[in-house]
Amino acid sequence: MNAVIIAVLVMLVLSLLRVNVVFALLIGALAGGLSGGLSFTETLTSYTDGLGAGATIALSYAMLGGFAVAISRTGIPELLVAGVLKLVNKEGEATRENLAKALIIFALFAMAIFSQNLIPIHIAFIPLLVPPILHILNELRIDRRLIASVLTFGLTAPYILLPYGFGLIFHEILATQMELAGMPIDMADIPKAMALPVAGLFLGLVVAVFISYRKPRDYRTVEAATTIEETPKRTASVKDIIVTVIALIAALFAQIQSDSMIIGALAGILILYVFGAMKWKEADDVLTAGMRMMAFIGFVMISANGFASVIQATGAIDSLVENAAAIFGDNKGLAALAMLIVGLFVTMGIGSSFSTIPIIAAIFVPLSVEFGFSTLAIIALIGTAGALGDAGSPASDSTLGPTAGLNVDGQHNHIWDTVVPTFIHYNIPLVLFGWIAVMFLG
Question: Which residues form the Putative Na+/H+ antiporter N-terminal domain (predicted)?
Answer without folding.
Answer: 2-87
